[in-house]
Write a structure and sequence with these properties.
The structure is a single chain. The protein has about 575 residues and is α/β, with parallel strands linked by helices. It contains 22 helices and 16 strands. Strand 4, helix 7 and strand 5 form a beta-alpha-beta unit. Helix 3 crosses helix 4 and helix 16 runs parallel beside helix 18. The chain is globular and about 70 Å long. It starts with 6 loop residues before the first strand and ends with a helix. Bound molecules: phosphoenolpyruvate and magnesium ion.
């Protein structure tokens, strides 16, 4: 669609900042396809890349078929035949090769064009059974795309212009894989600011707007402004708008530089209460920057992004090397490694995982070979610096007992192998399920520390899926249920003497962070982007005033009243 007039598309801010660039469309929630022209000398290689992906897909399907035959007999394995047939279909495979060669386009784009034609043909069929076969093609297209993209695509770095990724949904690992100095912004039709994609965008400091369905009309190459302050995307901006935004961008950069200066000052409140302020990171490369910024700890390292980065299981030796490098780069700053958490918007090898299903520790207890491998690697790396292990999504003391036994087994195994490790690595638990919030005092004897995951805790408490934008407006940390829950956690944990660090996004939002301090939490961990502003907030508030505030808001009935009172205290408005 050609738009000549400036148009404002409303969405939700997922990552602040602003970006000007040309849209690069992704077309699928799981796979990113973009269109670029090849040079004549690149065509042969691209055809080979496509054929390799066909071969890889065929091997995977054959393995899957053999497994299906073994487990459930020959009857169900015919399902895979349909997929294998698509891969043998000359109308499909040869047409893709022909497109790459005749139009000099990348394999992903050729696959998409050919499959789009076939999808349309399927949709026109009257026979319901045949129409259903569309799903087989859909599946195979996903598989081919996945296999094509298991390696990063070098050409993306060579984009001739600053790009804003636009799509229905961009998974966090994809955003990470596609990050480059030329990806300046992200705008998605669906998603919420609490999804891992949003968290990833914030980590990468990529301005992002999510939940903007009108973006469906935007085409690759269209000029866009992502405004991560107002929560809008400006499509086809006028020259005046463009000039105004470019001016704001310069001011923003100046401000960022200025705020960086305060980062080395201690995190103490006006009335001299010391607050521990750590950094949340999503991938190993962030450690260096956290240390350079003077962060006193890595309060949360979400290891799943690096773990699943290659699209296949990492081996123990490479994990040991990666974790050792993280600890060496941390230069003595303690690092809290959270064992892999597989959530709804994270990619794993076996597809989508439900928020209420096999997540976090549940996944690890069902896949003990993977869990043990990660634990062995963490212990082995622990000789390189202060290491802490954190277990996510814990909901029962029984699960915790099982995990504790597995940790002991792993240590015994390392003893047998005569492998050195730190036997005093502290073990912690995320309080992020209502069950953990209610029973953290019962869990305390089994753990050394706690981390409070408000992102999940709020979603489970208020029954709001954090990745569903249709309910995002209901997600409210000032809800009396949340305040009471946080107060209860503090009251239950305090007598146990175990520390609690709040590492959910609540700690990164100024008014909510002030509430946490008032409720008694004196250890926070936030993303690097939020670090300077939270430090400034800590230095500008008085703890005794915040304690009074918490006494008042715990008696209030409505989130709006709470928010107004908190804002008045923090901002003096
Ligand atoms: C949380 O749930 O608050 C948390 C920090 O973990 P994640 O955002 O990775 O689920
Ligand atoms: Mg969580």
């Amino acid at each position: 669609m050609i738009v000549s007039e400036e148009r404002i598309i409303h969405g939700v801010v997922a990552s602040v900042g602003m970006a000007v660039g040309k849209a690069v469309r992704t077309f699928d929630p799981l796979f990113v396809s973009f269109n670029f022209k090849l040079r004549p000398d690149q065509i042969c290689k691209e055809v080979e890349r496509f054929r390799n992906s066909v071969e890889k897909s065929r091997e995977q399907l054959k393995r899957m078929q053999a497994e299906l035959k073994r487990k459930s007999g020959p009857e169900s394995s015919f399902l895979i035949d349909a997929h294998l047939l698509v891969l043998q279909d000359r109308l499909f495979v040869d047409r893709i090769v022909e497109k790459i060669e005749s139009e000099s386009i990348n394999a992903e784009w050729a696959i998409q064009q050919v499959s789009d034609d076939l999808f349309q043909a399927y949709d026109r069929l009257n026979d319901e059974y045949l129409r259903e076969r569309r799903g087989d093609l859909d599946d195979i297209v996903r598989r081919l795309m996945h296999n094509l993209q298991s390696k990063p695509l070098p050409s993306f770095n060579k984009l001739p212009y600053d790009a804003i990724l636009v799509g229905k949904l961009v998974p966090p690992s994809t955003l990470f894989e596609l990050r480059s100095h030329r990806v300046v912004g992200l705008a998605t039709e669906t998603g919420s600011p609490l999804s891992h994609t949003a968290i990833m965008a914030r980590s990468l400091e990529i301005p992002a707007i999510v939940g903007a369905p009108e973006l469906a009309e935007v085409a690759s190459g269209d000029l866009l402004i992502v405004d991560g302050e107002r929560g809008v995307v400006i499509w086809s901006p006028s020259d005046e708008t463009l000039a105004a935004y470019k001016g704001r961008d310069r001011d923003g950069k100046r401000l960022k530089k200025k705020s960086g200066a305060s980062v080395s000052s201690p995190a103490v409140t006006e009335d001299r209460v010391q607050i521990s302020l750590g950094a949340n990171i999503n991938f190993s490369e962030e450690v260096r920057s956290a240390v350079t910024h003077g962060c006193e700890s890595i309060g949360l390292y979400r290891t799943e992004f690096d773990f699943f980065r290659e699209g296949k299981q990492p081996d123990e030796e490479s994990l040991v090397a990666d974790y050792s490098l993280v600890l060496k780069s941390a230069k003595g700053v303690p690092v809290t490694f959270r064992t892999i958490d597989v959530g709804i918007d994270q990619r794993s090898w076996d597809g989508v995982n439900s928020n209420l299903g096999v997540r976090g520790l549940r996944f690890c207890l069902e896949n003990t070979d993977i869990f043990k491998k990660q634990l062995r690697s963490l212990y082995r790396a622990s000789v390189n610096g202060p290491t802490r292990i954190l277990l996510p999504f814990v909901s029962t003391v029984d699960d915790l007992d099982t995990a504790t036994q597995i940790l002991a087994d792993v240590r015994a195994e390392l003893d047998l192998r005569h492998q050195p490790y730190d036997r005093n690595v502290p073990i912690g638990v995320m309080i992020e399920t209502p069950a953990a919030a209610q029973t953290c005092d019962l869990m305390a004897p089994c753990v050394d520390f706690f981390c409070l995951g408000t992102n999940d805790l709020i979603q489970y408490y208020l029954v709001i899926d954090r990745s569903d934008q249709s309910v995002v407006h209901l997600y409210n940390p000032f809800h009396p249920a949340i305040l009471r829950c946080l107060h209860q956690v503090y009251t239950l944990v305090r007598p146990t003497g175990k520390s609690v660090t709040v590492c959910g996004e609540m700690a990164a939002d100024l008014p909510s962070a002030a509430v946490l301090l008032g409720l008694g939490f004196t250890s926070l961990s936030v993303s690097l982007t939020a670090y300077p502003r939270i430090k400034r907030m800590i230095r500008s508030v008085s703890m005794s005033q915040l304690r009074d505030l918490s006494g008042q808001i715990l008696k209030m009935h409505k989130p709006k009243e709470v928010e107004a009172r908190v804002r008045a205290t923090v901002y003096g408005t």
